[in-house]
Design goal:
303 residues; 12 helices
């Protein structure tokens, strides 16, 4: 939800945006772990109806949290007036700002070829290792726990720059290649955990840098474009990886995803250097909100 993600920036100071983005990812990831388990328990003990009742009641907590927010402490962003051509304006804005265009392009490639776990992993478990549905669920659980750990580790960062995006993409690609080379199912589980850690690290780093570099009045449109690129590219790459996995096996599908992550990292590093954004993601010529750029430039950089 672009509106919800854009709202994160209004709730915390600028230097805490990476932490807030990572914590949001941790909450979403933990819900994917706890939610299905709780739903299964409710269905087994009380039936399907009560599962829906509890699901509906959970929204009360969200409403209470919104009602308890101290609105005087929010940092509202400028809102662009509605009008024609806003989509084109958003695309043009992203294309002119390398610190936005490059991570979004990386997310499109990685989303299409590296995040299609639902296509490749079932084939890896059943055809390559001869496992059953329960084994596939266990592998997904390892990945989900890894995602949660990765999100919590990422939340400790106080600064995110392009080196984090590039390094996370490369690490994600390497983890997928190692999973593709796993000689046995027991080794696939810890490697699945590593895939979970690195995948969420890439997502949180790229999302944080996009949120921090976008002008407040354009942030919603930029995040909407990010959602389209990531969620829209995954179904496009799914059939490609399906064909590759059918012809050459699930390991080949994982190799394609791993090479995509590494390739995106190499291209991103080259593109950032070419644009003059070596570390902070701050372009040499034009850029987003000068206040954000100033804060990013004066913040301590990692060694």
């Amino acid at each position: 939800n672009p509106a919800r993600r854009a709202f994160v920036v209004e709730m915390v100071p600028q230097d805490q945006v990476p932490n807030a983005v990572s914590l949001n990812s941790a909450v979403m990831t933990s819900s994917r772990i706890i939610g299905p388990a709780l739903a299964g328990l409710l269905i087994a003990t009380l039936g399907y109806g009560w599962a829906f009742v509890v699901d509906g009641a959970s929204y009360v907590a969200v409403l209470v949290a919104l009602a308890l927010m101290r609105t005087s402490e929010l940092r509202p962003s400028a809102v662009a007036e509605r009008g024609r051509g806003q989509v084109r304006e958003g695309l043009r804005y992203v294309r002119q700002v390398p610190a936005l265009f490059i991570p979004l392009a990386m997310m499109g490639v990685v989303g299409a070829l590296s995040f299609n776990f639902q296509v490749v992993l079932p084939l890896l478990v059943t055809r390559t290792f001869g496992g059953a549905a329960a084994t596939f669920t266990l592998l997904l659980s390892f990945m989900s726990v890894g995602s949660l750990v990765g999100a919590l580790v990422s939340a400790r960062r106080t600064e995110v720059d392009v080196t984090h995006v590039v390094a996370a993409s490369a690490a994600f690609g390497v983890a997928m290649l190692l999973l593709a080379a796993a000689p046995s199912l027991p080794l696939a589980f810890p490697l699945g955990f590593a895939v979970g850690v690195t995948s969420i690290s890439f997502m949180t780093a790229s999302t944080a840098i996009v949120q921090m570099r976008a002008e407040p009045s354009m942030r919603g449109r930029v995040l909407a474009l990010q959602a389209i690129l990531f969620l829209g590219s995954t179904p496009i790459g799914g059939p490609v990886l399906g064909v590759v996995s059918d012809l050459w096996g699930a390991r080949a599908g994982l190799v394609v995803g791993g090479l995509a992550g590494i390739g995106a990292a190499l291209w991103g590093r080259w593109a950032f250097r070419r644009a003059g954004d070596d570390r902070s993601g701050r372009e040499a010529s034009s850029g987003p909100d000068p206040v954000l750029v100033s804060e990013a430039a004066t913040a301590p950089q990692p060694a």
